[in-house]
Amino acid sequence: MTATSPRIIAVDTFDVRFPTSRELDGSDAMNPDPDYSAAYVVLRTDAGDGLDGHGFTFTIGRGNDVQVAAIGALRLHVLGRSVQELCADPGSLSRALIGDSQLRWLGPEKGVMHMAIGAVVNAVWDLAAKRAGKPLWQLLGHADPEWLVSQVDFRYIGDVLSPAEALTLLREGRQGLANREATLLESGYPAYTTSPGWLGYSDDKLTRLAKQAVADGFTQIKLKVGADLDDDIRRLRTARAAVGDGIRIAIDANQRWNVDEAIDWTTALAEFDPYWIEEPTSPDDILGHAAIRQAVAPVKVATGEHVQNRVMFKQLLQAGAIDVLQIDAARVGGVNENIAILLLAAKFGVPVCPHAGGVGLCELVQHLSMFDYLALSGTTENRVIEYVDHLHQHFIAPVVIREGHYTAPLTPGFSATMRQESLAEYRYPDGTFWVADRAGEDAR
Amino acid sequence: MTATSPRIIAVDTFDVRFPTSRELDGSDAMNPDPDYSAAYVVLRTDAGDGLDGHGFTFTIGRGNDVQVAAIGALRLHVLGRSVQELCADPGSLSRALIGDSQLRWLGPEKGVMHMAIGAVVNAVWDLAAKRAGKPLWQLLGHADPEWLVSQVDFRYIGDVLSPAEALTLLREGRQGLANREATLLESGYPAYTTSPGWLGYSDDKLTRLAKQAVADGFTQIKLKVGADLDDDIRRLRTARAAVGDGIRIAIDANQRWNVDEAIDWTTALAEFDPYWIEEPTSPDDILGHAAIRQAVAPVKVATGEHVQNRVMFKQLLQAGAIDVLQIDAARVGGVNENIAILLLAAKFGVPVCPHAGGVGLCELVQHLSMFDYLALSGTTENRVIEYVDHLHQHFIAPVVIREGHYTAPLTPGFSATMRQESLAEYRYPDGTFWVADRAGEDAR
Fold it and tell me: What phi and psi values does residue B274 have, to the nearest 5 degrees?
């Protein structure tokens, strides 16, 4: 290849679905039977260096095809772009995608279309980090604060965070970076585990997995709640007995309740000292979360995995509605918007404890928390990244958990690259797994 | 046909696009070149009575295919359903669609997937009204209050509006219904017109159309603003000179501004006595709208056409963020959710002035305002439905405007049915218009 100015020559999309519903992995009060899926995108270039940009939206099954179609609708903005320019300024693409006035009508900046933007923007960051030869957390952590500010869209958040304030936060955030980088490389970033707590699990399985979590070095676990109060009381008692008093137990209602129910139910579980109540109600209900937080303190209120964009996070912070902010790497408009959200959290001094699990969300979001530690908040105090032990084997560079910590990934990129074999097996509906599955059904 | 229990046997979808961008009709500060489009759905039955249910999502061009795909993803919930049961209880389908846990992940209740739900739910209401032999406004207006309450999903709004309160509002709302129905049938429902005010129009065209609007009996017009302040000052002065002091002039920024800009810009236009400022900032920014409202009074603050669901409207009302609530018939989850929103507005005493225009939005939303007048708020004081004089010719029963009022439609249904010829001409990309258009481009 002799291309002097390489271009994006293909935007390939894949509908990838894993049959997780068959094991009740991932079952909660709102999502009884998820089939963890990815609307997956690969940006291919003619650079001849073998480097592609990978990104995806996580979904839980049906509708993954709609999500793939939405990514496809962005193709015209990406094809033919200069790879060098894109990687030097992913924000330019982010602005072009968010600013497409016709596509904007389908949001704006929310739901299917916005998640599609996130997948494509994240794929650009994956490519940029691969070309830079760094894991994304390091690319971001080492980046010039002025440049990071240039990557943020201040529209609709400028009343609370100005570019000048953001610059100050990032400049101050760098102080002591070298020491923190050494710590990160040695000890990793704290994690908590949701693996014991799915609703579909028996009490015995809950006890066994909760004890295992403590033995594995986790200091926090999480239980799904919200389907049945008596069950929740029994399960929370079981979990507390299994882990003892020194371990934090977060609970997660996955939006099951109205405001009043959230207050009553959380109060009824308070004797087991839950650390936070996560998604007590609609992610859209800023004022509702504020009311719940007032009522259930000292239990903390956490949300974010379904919060659609920086405008909603801004208000959750303005309204004093949350104690814990849970970014998701693949829900909002990608890395650029997540930098904005991390800056907002830093300004308000609210700890960020990312949502993860699903397909590849752990792989992605670790980079954002590590950047935050390295060059923005500068602390891991009361900060933990969710960890769920599913589906990591499908990634080229899966997360590595050691002593309850995410070890810092060293592979260049955003850890988003799925194995070719996994794409071939689980592509829907024509991957080898699904073809065999249908053949088996026909045979029955 | 002898089917004793007719079923839904087909859910047909159409990607319909009109080349409106070529005339600058519909141009505003955020949407310079919209191609008004509909992701259109027809529910066909085996009842043998020739009645289909029609519904659609309005979009502005690119991405209409994604919206069609989202409607297609709902097909499994609709096919095979009993027509009688569906029409007797559209809320059962609404709950099934919103409650599909896998599809819910793509929102929840927002963006592409939620608008698709709205299109399908509205199609059921169209079918129900056709089968009842009534226009939808009359079907709703004559309906039993208990049944109307059963059609509302109180999840996430129960803290502000209980079923019992809703029932009281609807029972009280019926008092004097017969007189109001007579008034409606005689005089119609007040309208305002946006036709003079598109950004792409010259001052001469603005003056001519504004004077025409007054001559046609409108008492309110609307101007798009937000692209350039000096232009807006000149255009607003031009419009005020054209219509005089007795006519209300609303202004509409289409989300162009941050909170601070919205305050400054609106203040700079205050000398021309704008009646309301519409969409001053992000539709997601509840607290931002509240701050703007505080600052720009007595100019009123209006929003809603991009507000994603009842949870957001609930908070806009709780926060005292709006003076005028602008429902849209095809943005939220359909008639059921709009009943919830009308109930919330009635509880807070905030007037509803629907968004319309686009493709078929006038046709749909008139039914909701007329129901509100007939059986809920009981007044048209300070209430007007937007009117834009585009694309009505494509509908079987287009709106009829007389003396600045929407005349009450008498054709059974939701006025959603597009003409077959229009579908054949503007279906994208294979309709006759688009085929000829591409041929013309090739020839150039």
Answer: -65, 145
Containing H/E element for A376? none
Looking from the CA of B280 toward its CB, the CA atoms found within 13 Å total 33
Kindly state the average pLDDT of the residues A330-346: 98
Confidence at residue B1, expressed as pLDDT on a 0 to 100 scale:
44
Q: What is the number of residues in chain B?
A: 444
pLDDT of residue B213: 97
Domain definitions of chain B by residue range: 8-135, 177-421
Nearest to A123 by CA among A157, A78, A84: A78
**The 3-state secondary structure of B36-94, one letter per residue:** CEEEEEEEEECCCCCCCEEEEEEECCCCHHHHHHHHHCCHHHHCCCEHHHHHHCHHHHH
- Which chain B residues are Cβ-neighbours of A100 within 8 angstroms? 62
Q: Which residue has the higher pLDDT, B3 or B355?
A: B355
DSSP string, B393-411: GGBSS---EETTEEPPP-S
Residue A163 touches chain B, beta carbons under 8 Å:
no
Please state the rounded mean pLDDT for residues A190-204.
92
Residue with tokens 């009043």: A260
As its CATH architecture, domain B8-135 has 2-Layer Sandwich (3.30)
> Biggest alpha carbon distance in chain A?
68
Cα–Cα distances (Å) from B268 to A375, B206, B213, B237, B309, in that order, read: 41, 20, 25, 12, 32
> Of chain B residues 10-49, which have a CB less than 8 A from chain A?
30-35
For residues A254 and A277, what is the distance between their CA atoms, to the nearest angstrom?
10
Whether residue A157 is predicted with pLDDT greater than 90 in this model: the reply is yes
CATH 3.30.390.10 correct for A8-133: yes
Mean pLDDT along residues B353-370: 98
DSSP code at position A54: E
Chain segment A9-35, per-residue pLDDT in tens: 999 999 999 998 887 666 777 777 889
Q: Which CATH class is domain A177-421?
A: alpha beta
Q: pTM of whole model > 0.90?
A: yes
pLDDT of A1 reads 44
DSSP H stretches of helix in B142-258: 145-150, 163-173, 177-187, 203-215, 229-243
Q: Does A62 touch chain B (CB under 8 A)?
A: yes
Question: How many Å separate Cα B354 from the centre of its chain?
Answer: 6
CA dihedral in degrees (A76, A81, A83, A85; nearest 10)?
-120
**Residue B35: pLDDT above 90?**
yes
- pLDDT confidence bin for B229, thresholds 50/70/90: very high
Cβ separation of A315 and B32 shorter than 8 Å? no
Cα gap A369→B226, rounded to integer Å: 38
Helix (H, G, I), strand (E, B) or coil at A319: coil
Provide the percentage of residues in chain B whose pLDDT is more than 90.
Answer: 93
Which regions of B292-364 does DSSP assign to beta strands (E)?
300-303, 324-325
Burial class (CB in 10 A: 0-12, 13-18, 19+), B434: middle
A259 touching chain B per CB within 8 A? yes
- CB neighbour burial string for A67-105, b if at least 16 within 10 angstroms, e if fewer: bbbbbbbbeebbeebebeebbebbbbbbeebbebbbbbb
Handedness of CA A300, A306, A307, A309 (dihedral sign): positive
What average pLDDT does range B132-151 have in this prediction?
98
Identify the CA nearest to A313 among candidates A357, A343, A274: A343
- Do the Cβ atoms of B106 and A288 come within 8 Å? no
Per-residue pLDDT reduced to its tens digit, B153-190: 999 999 999 999 999 999 999 999 999 999 999 999 99
pLDDT band, very low/low/confident/very high, at A242 (cuts 50, 70, 90): very high
